[in-house]
Each structure stands twice: as C-alpha cells, then as structure tokens.
Amino acid sequence: MRTPLGQVRGLGAARSGTDHFWLQRLTAVSNLVLSTVFVGVLVSLAGDSHASVVATLSNPIVAILMLLFVISVVVHMRIGMQVIIEDYVHAELPKLLLLMGNTFFAIVVGLSAVFALLKISFGV
Amino acid sequence: MASSKAGSNRPLSPHLQIYRPMLSMMMSIVHRITGAALYVGSILLVIWLVAAASGPSAFETIQSIYGSILGQLVLFCYTWALIHHGLGGVRHLIWDTGRGFDHQSRERLIKGGLIGSIALTVLIWVVVYATHGATG
Ligand code: HEM
C-alpha cells in the first residue's frame, strides 16, 4: 500500500523536494551582498579603457568577489527559472525540455563568466 | 495524484480572475518579471566579461555598444530591475519569517521597495555620469 506521503516523498514537480526552497533563500542573501559589490565595481569601471578594467578585475579581492557573485547568481537564477517553468508548463515533455534548457543556460552563463574572469586575472 | 484521498479537500489556489488587483499582488508579479529579465540580462554581463578577456579591440566594440543611447537605456533598466528585485527579495525574506503581513507593514514594504529602487537607480546613474562623463 502507498500512503499519500509515500507518493510525494522525494518528488515535487522537479523531483527535488524542499532543497531548492532553502537554496533560493541562501542565494538571495548572498546575492544581496555580492550584487552590491558588483554594482560598486561596475560604477567605478563604467566606460573605462580595457587596460584599466583588466587592472581592476585582476585584483584578487575584486576577482574573488566577482567569481562568488557569478556563482551565487547562476545558482539562484537557475532555481528561480525552474520555479517559473514548473508554474506555467505542465505537459511533461515541454517541461522536461525547458528544465534542461534552463540548466544548460545557467551552466553556459556561469562557466563563460568564470572562465573570462580567470583569464583576465591570469593575463589576457 | 488525483486518485489520492488527500487531494480532495486540499485548499484551492486563489482564482486570479475574481481577485481585485492589489498592490501586493502586482508587486509579486513584478518580482517574477524582474527575475526573468535579470536571467536574460545575465548574457550582457557574460558578453562584457568575455570581451574584456578577449582583448582591447573586442572590448572597445562592446563598450561602444553598451555606451550607445540604447545600450545605456538597457543598462539603466537592468540596474532598476536588479535593485527592485533585490529589495523585493528582502521583502520576501521578511515575509518568510512570518513578519510584516499586516496591512500597514505590507504597504510600507512595497512602497519602500518601489520608491527605494527608483531612488537608488537614479543615484547610481548620477554617480556614473558625474564620475565618468556622459559617454558612459
Ligand atoms: C540582488 C539580490 C537578489 C535577491 C535578494 C533575490 C531574492 C529572491 C527571492 C527571495 C526569490 C524568491 C521569491 C519567491 O519565493 O517568490 C527570488 C526569485 C527569483 N530570482 Fe532573485 N534575488 C536577487 C537577485 C537575482 C538575480 C541577479 C537574478 C537573475 C540573474 C535573479 C533571478 C530570480 C528569478 C528568475 C526568480 C524566480 C522568480 C519567481 O519565482 O517568481 N535574482 N529572488
């Protein structure tokens, strides 16, 4: 016999239970701090030359904070978009494809930004 | 799922068409829209960083696009979306603790988010122009 609890345990629309709820809050807090840093860095770099942008971004403290910002945002936005997809798309196949696309997008954005930041740090 | 007994007397979600639009409801939708806009806009950051990592000429090209009138308009909107969504996030976190649900706090949190986000966005861009000139 399957109880109602047994049927939902470990499931949910994306088979991931409440982990995402917590991770969304965790990254909301880190986004808040890191995006403040990010905006500050961008304001100080707005319109600057390549040389000066590279000099700032390759400062280890700036680079580490920017890397943390990228990771935090990418994790947060992937789960956030997953919730949106689960809310509006109910047919299994389209939902599956969109969830896949969402993950690919987050990985491509995250990896490209991290690669670029590391390359800038280690020498363009 | 439909076959389980527990499903029959669960509460139904509110039906949007019979609800009078309320500020808190609008803001909840705006939070979602800004979240989705930020999601798409993350490409702008990637392009900028990859251009910087590619070298001076690629970077100049991107800087001139981002520095154009249209580019600046998009970045201005992106700034607002980020700040509004961030402040909206703070509101959600406060609500997650079970606080701030009475009418007055709700209105205050929402108006604070709206006014605060506009004020901060304008402030940021004033600083950008004041320190870097109108060429962005
Ligand atoms: C600035 C700091 C940020 C904070 C404090 C924040 C906070 C939050 C919170 C608390 C939620 C959950 C809302 C809910 O449960 O209904 C959320 C949702 C979301 N966030 Fe953020 N966020 C921030 C930045 C970002 C950024 C930079 C992006 C994208 C690049 C983003 C994309 C999203 C998306 C797509 C959702 C899902 C929206 C929804 O389900 O309605 N957020 N955010």
Textual characterization of the structure:
The complex is a heterodimer of chains A (124) and B (136). Chain A has 124 residues and is an all-alpha fold. Chain A contains five helices and no strands. Chain A has a single domain (19-122), classed as Fumarate reductase/succinate dehydrogenase, transmembrane subunit (3 helical TM bundles of succinate and fumarate reductases), CATH 1.20.1300.10. Chain A has helices spanning 4-8, 19-45, 50-57, 60-88, 92-122. The radius of gyration of chain A is 19 Å and the shape is elongated. Chain A starts with a helix and ends with a helix. With 136 residues, chain B is mostly helical. Chain B has one domain: Fumarate reductase/succinate dehydrogenase, transmembrane subunit (3 helical TM bundles of succinate and fumarate reductases, Up-down Bundle), CATH 1.20.1300. Chain B is elongated. At the A-B interface, helix 2, helix 3, helix 4 and helix 5 of A face helix 1, helix 2, helix 3 and helix 4 of B.
